[in-house]
Amino acid sequence: MATNAEDKYRCFAYEKNKDMVDHIGFQLAQSGDATCNGLSTIEGSRTLKLTKGVHPMGVCSFPAWMTNALAWHTLDWHKTYTFGPKNTSIKVHNASDIPEMKALCYNVTSSTERSFTLLAHVTKGCKIGFVCMAFYQRSQHVIEFQMSNFAGNREEACTSQFFDKSSTPFVTLITSTPQPRKCPDLGRYNPLKDMKRNKRDMCQEFTSLRMGCNRVDTLEFETDCPSEHRVESYECHANWEENGTSFLITSVKGTRTRYCFVSKTKTIKMRRRE
Fold first, then answer.
1. Which of 23, 51, 178, 273 is spaced 20 to 30 Å from 244 by Cα?
2. pLDDT, tens digit, for every residue of 18-33?
C-alpha cells in the first residue's frame, strides 16, 4: 500500500495515434516516479499503444415477423426492444429510455416459420461477449425469447454449457397495440373447492370464471357474495400450448396492464406469469 506521495502519484502522457488512418487509438506513457520529468508519449517507465475495439458488423437479420413491429415491450413495460438499421441488431431500453443492451445478429443457427435462433454479439455496459438467443412467435402481437449466459467466444455461446433451453426462462414481449382475439376454452367455470376460503374472507376469491360469455374476446372473473358483486374483465390477445400447459396473454380492459395466465387442462387453477 502506498504510504507517501512518491508511491501514490504517477504522470501520464498521451496523444492520438498518428500512424493510423482514422487516428482511432492512443499512444500512452507512464512515468516511473511522481514527476513528469523527461516523459513523452513514446518514452517512459511504461508505454502502451491503445486501439479502439472494432464492433463486428451484422451479418444476418432478424425475421420479418419480429421487425414488422416498431417496438416490443415486456408485460410490465419495464423494458422496450427495438431494431437497428437493416434489422441486424436489437436494442434494449429500460423504462427511463436508457439503453441497457445491444445484440448484433452474428449467425443464424436455426430458423422456421415461427421460431428463430441466432448467435449474437452483445454489448451490455462495458461487458462484451456472445450469447445464443431463441425467439418464438406466439401470435402477430406476442413473441417470447430465451437467452443464454454470456460466453467469451462465439463457439461456446450456443453449447449446452451456456444455453440449456429446458431450464432457461422465457421473456414474453408484446406490441404497443395488441389486438383483441377470441379467448380459448369458451364457457363458464367454477373454482375448485380447495380454492374457497372460510366465510369471512371468501369474497377475496372469485366465484366463477367466464370465458367469452359476453364477448368472445373477454375473460371475466366474477365475485358474487352477500357483501358485494364485482367483475374483473380482461381482453384476450394470444394463446398457445406447450408441453400440456396453456398460456393466455391478456390486458386489463382500457389499460396497458398486461398479464399472462397459465393453466393446465385437467384443472382450472390459474396463476399469473408477469
1. 178
2. 765 555 788 889 998 9
Q: Is 235 helix (H, G, I), strand (E, B) or coil?
A: strand
Q: Which residue intervals of 172-232 are DSSP H helices?
A: none
Q: How far apart are CA 274 and CA 252, in angstroms?
A: 13
Distance set, CA 223 to CA 28, 149, 209, 215, 219 (Å): 72, 44, 9, 18, 13
pLDDT digit string, tens, across residues 211-224? 888 899 999 988 87
In terms of DSSP H, where are the helices of the chain? Answer: 5-8, 64-67
pLDDT at 20: 58
In contact, 134 and 165? CB cutoff 8 Å: yes
Query: What local confidence, expressed as pLDDT, does residue 222 receive?
Result: 86
Q: Quick one: pLDDT band at residue 44, thresholds 50, 70, 90?
A: confident
Assigned C-alpha cell, 164: 440449456
Spatial distance between the Cα atoms of 268 and 274, rounded to a whole number of angstroms: 19
- Quote the CA–CA distance of 23 and 25 in Å, as a whole number: 6
All 3 cell numbers of residue 142?
Answer: 406476442
C-alpha cell at 26: 492512443
Q: How far is CA 20 from CA 25, 49, 54, 203, 259, in A?
A: 8, 11, 14, 74, 54
Q: Mean pLDDT over all residues of the chain?
A: 86
Best CA proximity match to 59, nearest among 108, 102, 103: 108
